[in-house]
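Appendix B. Extra example for self-study. Work through it before the problem class; the solution is given directly after the inputs so you can check yourself.
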Amino acid sequence: MYEVLEDFAQENGLRQTSTSLKLLIGLSSILLSVSSPAPVAPLLVAASMSTVILALARIPVRFYARLLLIPVSFAVMSIAVVLFITAGGAVLLEVPGLPLAITADGVNLAVLLLARVFGGMCSLYFIALTTPMTEVFDILRRLRVPTVFIDLAMLTYRFIFILIEEAGQIYRSQVMRLGYGRFRESVQSFGMLSGALFLRTWESGEALVLAMDARCYDGRLCIPGDTRPVSCFALAAALLYIGVVFGASLCTGGLVLV
Amino acid sequence: MHIMEGFLPSPWWQVWFLVSLPFIVIGLYQVNKLVQEKREALPLLAVAGAFVFVLSSLKLPSFNGSCSHPTGTGLGAVLFGPCIAAVLGLIVLVFQAVFLAHGGITTLGANVFSMGIAGPAVAYLIYKVGIRAGANTYATVFCAAALADLATYVVTSVQLALAFPGTAGFLGAFSAFAAIFAVTQVPLAIVEGAVIALVFKYIVQLKPEILTRLNLLPESTIRKLQEAAA
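Solution. Structure tokens for the complete assembly:
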């Protein structure tokens, strides 16, 4: 029911590849898609990232296809607005009876946005599906992000999985007792679920304080980091890929930095 | 109301990162101070963050059949104050982007501002004013959570309208974005207000010491609320 991407990050084909290399590829792909002035480079990013996810990381095709549908609802609504409020160029379609028209400039902008969102989302999925969060924490530590922030993020991360499990149990037992039959009942049940969840959360937080104190917690959490060497071949391939996308972005109208 | 990866062009995504940065820095400073004073604060903050994440990953019942997610940050702001809620919001949004594909990395700044800063600040203000004025506690919590949700959605519309003013200008674009999101967001805000008020009711009935320890409600009010329920 609650399939999170993290499950795949723990056991995918690229699990043993260096974390910093994966982050480098993912983040630079995102930046290149966002700053590209034409839809070619983002679409190239989307295609190559999807290929890597499916072929190298071996994520099931059906699962990945379902993931790609998540951003669609927001994209459709917002891009529809952009489509109608941008005027200029030839009028392609007019809505009879309303002052609404779709013009060439509007279509161009909408296509560009769709390509950027697509490229960005595919790169984000690349990071999410291949890199476990625990390894990102290690990178953050080496980047000297404040310790209190990393500790807070790690504890939050740990609790998310415990709470999702509990929320699922409460939800299923409510559904079995017809808790979501009518709208009024749904709100009532959802409030009950959230309230119970909050109280249980708080209690497990207090229990964690005790448990950590019993194990000599002194305000600092330590995790051993392991460094994996980056192979020259992988690094060269990554740089080549970034170079090609950058080149495609430059060839199709220059890079928009500001 | 997450803005998704790749949607905000330069320079707007950088601008929203810069706008959010000072709040995060103040929040981190406050968290640091809190943790040094009371060590038990760190796990409690963490479970609050996890609670917000789980709440926002559940689908909320909505009038018009569409499923939407509660933001949940209003509760965090009422409990710990707006700046700490901003830090929790940042952590939750990063996890949402990476685990659930809601939001993104470049749009993180804009999302943190709308969901982690503007919404919680509204919730916090309304809660403080309402409690001080002696208004009905549950009505205050309802308003705080519902208006925090609405503030989030208005800020998101502003962010999108600034980035894509089109030929209609900022105001025209803003009303277009606001109108199209109102379909899902206004019912959602009302439902979320009701849900958070119910959560508050459970806390008052079952574990009121949380509220007294964080100085959120005086004991006399809690006793009165418990008597009214009994």
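Self-check: Chain A has ten helices and two strands. If your reasoning did not lead you there, revisit section 3.
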